Description:
The chain is mainly alpha-helical. Helices cover 57% and strands 0% of the residues. The chain contains five helices and no strands. It has helices spanning 5-11, 16-23, 27-34, 42-51, 56-59. The longest helix is centred in the C-terminal third of the chain and has 10 residues, at 42-51. The chain is globular, with a radius of gyration of 10 Å. The model has no long low-confidence stretch (mean pLDDT 93).
Amino acid sequence: MDNKIREYRKKKNLSQAELAEEVGLARQTVGLLENKSYNPSLKVCLNIANVLDTTLDSLFNPKSF
């Protein structure tokens, strides 16, 4: 799934580990998400968008589903 997690995470000056801790994921999972190797649940998507202060539409490309 196409996403902008890395871009938004860096704008917030968060490391992968910091984002993972705030969302309740493993750091490796954040890495997989950023590399588009993992399709998260809707709950995880919402949590990430909330932590990164953005919307789902801005963070994830709905055309890539």
